[in-house]
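Our platform keeps sequence and structure together, in a single record for each protein. Nothing more is needed to write down the fold, since each code stands for a local backbone conformation. An entry from our holdings is shown next, in its original layout:
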Amino acid sequence: MIVAIFTINSEIASCFLFAINVGRTVAFGGRVLTDEKPKYLNSPETITYHKGNELYGLYEALQANDEPKQLLVVEGYMDVVALAQFGVDYAVASLGTSTTSEQIQLIFFVRPSKLFVVTMVTVQGVMQRGEH
């Protein structure tokens, strides 16, 4: 999921770069590693990419299990990646927006029997306890 760490210029700090993948890469999102602003750097919306229509990690979750029994909706890229490191391969995140009706439709299209929506506080607790 993490493609590269790079520095754009003196105004933007080094950042993690995430490929937004829906079977092919349609955009990139970045997370700055320092306190510099903006905190997130994202590809602009295009004809083929609208951030309110996609869920980060959904393609990968479906690659791990084409009929997932559960989906875990978290806040952002870093949460999906952190959970993946602990074996949670069913986490997804909205792309820098509040969860949209289009994203909810994607979730219902996948039809998990369980759907969990959590905050970062919950994610940190799960990681600290080693639960998943």
The beta strands are 2-6, 15-21, 25-32, 40-42, 70-74, 91-93, 114-117. The chain has a mean pLDDT of 79. The CA atoms of residues 13 and 35 lie 9 Å apart.
